[in-house]
Structure formats: structure tokens, C-alpha cells
Amino acid sequence: MEAYADYLLLALATPFALWAAWSDLRTMRIPNEISLYAGLVFILVMPFFLSYESFGFRVTVAGWVLVARFVLNALG
Questions:
Q1: How many domains, the chain?
Q2: Which residue blocks in the chain are alpha helix, DSSP H?
């Protein structure tokens, strides 16, 4: 089941990626809601298809990336 989780995530994330690309081309802005909805889909769907270790690792890495982005943004 875990082997297909990446393909499922790709299928679920594709509409958000297309929405972001279309919005960026149309208005040169990407709404924050796109990231929130994509993250919400990941949090709600992926625990059923990934092991707890894999899911926890992905969420942990996402958290560290978020912290790193805040630090880099603060440093300019």
C-alpha cells in the first residue's frame, strides 16, 4: 500500500499545482490558500496510506523546512 502512496499524493496535488500555475500566470500571485489546502489534503489522507514512521518523517521534514525558511527570511 505504501508503494502507491506517492502516486496518490501526486494525483491529489496535481489540481493544486495547476491552480497555482494558472493563478501565477493570470495575476502574478499565488494565493496562500493553495498551500493550506494542499497541506490539509496531505494531513487528512496520507496517514491512511503511509506508515507512521514515514508520515512522521515527512511532517518533521516539512516543519524543519518551514523553520529554515523563517530564519532565512529573517536574515534577509
A1: 1
A2: 5-27, 32-45, 52-75
pLDDT tens figures, 53-76: 999 999 999 999 999 999 999 998
Q: Is 32 within 8 Å of 40 (Cβ atoms)?
A: no
* CA distances for 10 relative to 68, 72, 73, angstroms: 25, 28, 28
Cβ(5)–Cβ(49) under 8 Å? yes
CB 46 within 8 A of CB 5: yes
Residue appearing with cell numbers 489522507: 45
- Regarding pTM above 0.85, the answer is no
Q: How far apart are CA 32 and CA 10, in angstroms?
A: 20
Could you tell me the residue range of the domain that residue 47 belongs to?
2-75
